[in-house]
Amino acid sequence: MTATDWMPHDPDRSASQIQWVCHHAVDRSVLDLGCGNGRIAIPASAISSRYVAVDLDPEGLACIAAETGRVELVEADFRTLDLEEERFDLLLCLGNTFALIWDVDEAVSLLQHWRGLLGEGGMLVLDDLAADCWAEVACGNWAAGVDESGTMQLVWAVDDAVLAVREGDAVNLEDWELGQEDRRMRVWTAGALRLASAAAGFQPPRCDEAGGVLILQVAPV
Question: pTM for the whole thing?
């Protein structure tokens, strides 16, 4: 089984992220939130001091287990996982997973919780969502509509940068409003993420363009 994310990066961006994480994970403890089937976890766990990988998908976790025994696997929703007594050097939320946190209040709450899981000098690492996605939206490449095959429908919220992708039988040309059954995703702008980070007690996100990541560190008291 090939290690992938739910909304994968292009190969070059993926390779850059893996290289960045591996460089910073040497002899450090890592918590991988939404690890998928191990794109980051499999190579980075080989050089970290401790690697904890969390995901709801048992098949993804099984893929990691088949490749390495150095990962502590946790089948759980990372949004509700309780690790109050734990401290880590690196928290990873990659593979565009943070885009699934579409509600801003929930995002701030999660960021606050994650800040408490970081040890001194620790870092929260996210995809550079604004650079990866917002330019595509601004160019009109993510406009609402249905693809030529009629098997994929893109539906936007009427008042926010939130969308859902409907596929297969879920496509409904009579319905262009987001419903409870839609899997929502936020296209985070740099400004929105900066505000959410500040509200949660982090310094402004710092972009590492070569690695394709945003780095959040705890703001000084």
Answer: 0.91
